[in-house]
Amino acid sequence: MAQIKKANALLNDPVQHPYIEDINNWGQTEYWATAYQFLRKSGDCEDYSIAKYMLLKAAGYPVENMRIVAVRIRSLGGIGHAILVVYQGNKAWVLDNRTPSVMDASLIKLEFQPVMSLNENQWLDHLPGK
After folding, report:
1. Residue 6 contacts residue 51 (beta carbons within 8 Å)
2. How many Cβ atoms sit within 10 Å of the Cβ of residue 110?
3. Helix (H), strand (E) at residue 71
4. Which of 58, 81, 93, 111 gives the lowest tally of CB atoms within 10 Å of its CB?
């Protein structure tokens, strides 16, 4: 858990990695940056998630225990967002660039509606009827 919290804190640092919309950073409405690009130019929600995934992978955390999850934020009218979900034993933890805390996924599932999730081995569609 210490590695998970440290990765979240390091990459959520607003001085080192301020949130920057893709259109301002890359001149495109949507761009999924590599971890290297994020470290050089910062980014938006999915870029934080990718960088955290890669940092934890480099620290030896198993990729099968991590998923980048595209979600809709219910309290914000269904706006798109991305988070990293990390599984430790039978618990899921959420790493979100909007908060400094690593959150218990069971406590926030009402806030997020998963759309899809992926890691380097698998892609899952979470929308109903798919």
Report:
1. no
2. 9
3. strand 66-73
4. 58
| pLDDT of 22 | 97
pLDDT in tens, 19-34: 999 999 999 999 999 9
pTM assigned to the model: 0.94
Q: Under 8 Å CB-to-CB from 91, ≥6 apart: which residues?
A: 104, 105, 106
Nearest-angstrom CA–CA distance, 118 and 125: 9
Average pLDDT of span 71-83: 95
Token output for 23: 């259109």
Residue 85 buriedness (CB in 10 A; 0-12 / 13-18 / 19+): buried
Only one residue has tokens 């409405």, namely: 29
**Residue 19 contacts by C-beta under 8 Å, 6 or more apart in sequence?**
42, 43, 44, 45, 97
Q: How far is CA 13 from CA 44, 49, 92, in A?
A: 13, 13, 23
Sign of the four-CA dihedral 107, 47, 42, 62: positive
Q: Which long-range contacts (CB under 8 A, 24 or more apart) does 119-126 make?
A: 119/53, 119/63, 119/64, 119/66, 119/67, 119/68, 120/63, 121/63, 121/64, 124/67
